[in-house]
Hints:
By secondary structure, the protein is an alpha+beta fold.
Amino acid sequence: MNIAISNDTGVFSTHSKVRWRVCWENELQLAEHIELSEFFRKTYGPTGEFNAKPFEGGRSWAGARPEIRVIGYDAHGIAAHIGALRRFIKVGDIDLLVAELGLYGVR
C-alpha cells in the first residue's frame, strides 16, 4: 500500500509500503513477541510509564492475550497492530459470539 500525502506546498510525498500480516497467536515466534513488545513500549510509553510497563521483558500483551493479530510492517519494522479475542456475551437467552479488539497502535 502506497500512501501519498499532499503538504501545504502542494508537493506529494510517498510513504513506504506497508505489508500486512494476519496471524494466530501461536504462529508468532519469540523474536516477534520481542519486536512487538518494543513497539508497544514505544507506542504506549509517551502516555505514561505505567502504560508501557506490561510490555517489559518481551511480553507482547497487557491483559488477555489476543487470539489473532493484524500487524503492519514497513521499512522501519512494525508500523501498526491490532489484536482480537473471541468473547461470548449473553443477549436475552442467546450466547452471542463477538470479537474484542484491543492492543491497537500506530507508529
